[in-house]
Amino acid sequence: MLTKILVVDDEASIVKLLQFNLEKAGFQVVTAFDGKQALDMARMEQPDFIILDWMLPKMEGMDVCKTLRQERNNTPILMLTAKDDELDKILGLELGADDYLTKPFSPREVIARVKAILRRTQTTADGTAAPDEVVLQFGEIRIYPEKYEVYRGSEKVELTPKEFELLHYLASHHGRVLTRDQLLNAVWNYDFIGDSRIVDVHVSHLREKLEEDTKNPRYIKTVRGLGYKLEG
Q1: Domains and CATH numbers, the chain
Q2: How is residue 96 annotated by DSSP?
Q3: Closest to 225 measured CA to CA, from 157, 179, 175
Q4: Which keywords accompany this UniProt record (predicted)?
Q5: Residue 70: helix, strand or coil by DSSP?
Q6: Measured by CB atoms within 10 angstroms of the end CB, which terminus of the chain is less buried, N or C?
Q7: Is 54 helix (H, G, I), strand (E, B) or coil?
Q8: How do residues 44-98 score in pLDDT, each as one tens digit?
Q9: How far is CA 37 from its chain centroid?
Q10: Strands (E), 82-154
Q11: What are the residues whose beta carbons fall under 8 Å from the beta carbon of 207, sequence distance 6 or more?
Q12: Model confidence, pTM
């Protein structure tokens, strides 16, 4: 079955360009041209990936992203934005987007980022753990890499794909101090020059979901001037 991508933009030329190139790359594409239609399509079509413009009629892309995350829809979201302000980009990540691209962009870069994210967010075909699956555990937190699932005690923790990837990488290097640049290269898979706050935002999200006291975290420790390490 082809991977289904929902492309949302109010500019028909951009939708047409992305649809042509994504279908040429082997994806199935469905489209929407405003925020409300995007929400309806996301709920009805259940796409595997969403490419979502920031500025949309009827409902802005940020609100679409926020609503989907509130509904516990963790479909990977790549935001498209004409805004080049770092605070706007950070806001998008804080609301649950996994990545962003600033317009103008090349279709090849969009496809490369889509593929990179999908490679790291695929689960096993039937959603069950492989018999030899390695479970990473620290304290009461358990990570099931094959199923992309995380549990805190008996409670399943809902993470976005990027949050999971970051946690998994920290857990795979348990006890080691990892710089923000190392985490950017490992989890985002390309160079985010000057955008190390992306790591800080995702660490903050993980702490909110995993820690009892976010101001005094038990698991994800800040190493001042260097980066982060996972303990427990």
Answers
A1: 4-123 (3.40.50.2300), 136-230 (1.10.10.10)
A2: T
A3: 179
A4: Cytoplasm, DNA-binding, Phosphoprotein, Transcription, Transcription regulation, Two-component regulatory system
A5: helix
A6: N
A7: coil
A8: 999 999 999 999 999 999 999 999 998 989 899 998 987 665 666 666 677 778 8
A9: 22
A10: 99-102, 136-138, 141-144, 149-152
A11: 214, 217, 220
A12: 0.61
Distance, CA of 121 to CA of 147 (rounded, Å): 9
Residue 189 and residue 116 in contact, taking contact as beta carbons nearer than 8 Å: yes
* C-beta separation of 230 from 136 below 8 A: no
Q: Is 32 helix (H, G, I), strand (E, B) or coil?
A: strand
Two tokens, residue 148: 């992309």
Q: Tell me if 7 sits within 8 A of 45, measured CB to CB.
A: no
**Dihedral sign, Cα of residue 183, residue 202, residue 199, residue 104:** positive
Binning the chain into helix, strand and coil, the percentages to the nearest 5 are: 40, 20, 40
Distance (Å, whole) CA 196 – CA 14? 29
pLDDT of 191 reads: 53
What pLDDT sits at residue 123? 45
- Cα distance between residue 227 and residue 206, in whole Å: 15
- Write down the pLDDT at residue 117: 79
Structure tokens at 136: 């990473």
